[in-house]
Amino acid sequence: MTVENTGTWGKSHIGCKRKNNEDRYLIKIVSEISILAVADGVGGNPGGEIAAQIVTDSFQEHIFSKTDLKTDLKTVLLESEKRILQKIEENQKLEGMSTTLTAVAVYHSKVFWIHIGDSRLYLLRNKKIKQMTKDHTFIQDLIDDGTLSPEQADKHPLKNMLDQCLGCDDIELDCGVFQVKKNDRLLLCTDGLTTHLPDSQIESIMAINSIQEAGKQLIEEALKMGGSDNVTVVIKNI
Q1: Nearest residue to 32 via CA among 104, 105, 128, 114
Q2: Does residue 167 contact residue 49 with C-beta atoms inside 8 Å?
Q3: Alpha-carbon Rg of the chain, whole angstroms?
Q4: What are the domain boundaries of the chain?
Q5: Burial class of residue 221, CB neighbours in 10 A (0-12, 13-18, 19+)
Q6: Helix segments in the chain, DSSP class H
Q7: How is the chain split among helix, strand and coil, in percent rounded to 5?
Q8: In this structure, are residues 177 and 111 in contact, taking their beta carbons and an 8 Å threshold?
Q9: pLDDT tens for the 238 residues of the chain, in order
Q10: DSSP codes, 189-221
Q11: Of 3.30.230.10, 3.40.50.620, 3.60.40.10, 3.40.50.300, which CATH number belongs to 4-237?
């Protein structure tokens, strides 16, 4: 699905190594509100793609209000969590089913966001990129407390181990809001992109290409580097 006439573009690719695509994404634009989301079903667990689909379906179905988008995002995320747990109760073979989620609601000059897991939200402004979310991983905790440097963490065998996800016990989501300006860009992506491409390369691709060309090139570069996971990218011009 692409929504090019609204300045928004999205695509998901299975990658080079996986047998199925457990990523899902959403582009929903209604009454001046843009709802964007990426979800990455946790690999190695049963039903990851089901969990990711439940989340994006929940965001698709919800009627968002212009007056309280922050609460709307939390409401949908928590409802998704309930749906995932209910699905597990109905089918014990889905025990462990879980997913990441990074979602935004863009209304005029404000971006409301909500996040759990290791998918990411970036802001590109004046050709410089900034990661707006923090990965919920075991390794990120070690970076935060100074045990590992970012360079050491990048080579750690457990660098992709999540400590937060939808479907996990006792979730602790992150959320917030920030202002955007004309010509800013938003990038939502799954770790199939960021595992292979450093922020500097993402920045250079995002800064000089249209959103369509930037998105295509980001995915192509991830595939060239091995495409070890599903790769999903959503980009929006402000």
Answers
A1: 105
A2: no
A3: 17
A4: 4-237
A5: middle
A6: 48-61, 69-90, 138-144, 150-154, 191-194, 199-208, 211-224
A7: 35, 30, 35
A8: yes
A9: 445 556 999 999 999 999 899 999 999 999 899 999 999 998 666 789 999 999 999 999 999 999 999 999 999 999 999 999 999 999 988 988 999 999 999 999 999 999 999 999 999 999 999 999 999 887 777 767 767 666 666 666 566 678 888 988 778 899 999 999 999 999 999 999 999 999 999 999 999 999 999 999 999 999 999 999 999 999 999 9
A10: E-HHHHTTS-HHHHHHHHHHS-HHHHHHHHHHH
A11: 3.60.40.10
Residue 168, both tokens: 């996990």
The answer to whether 106 and 36 have CB atoms below 8 angstroms apart is yes
Contact 96, 51 (CB under 8 A): no
Token code pair at residue 190: 């799954």
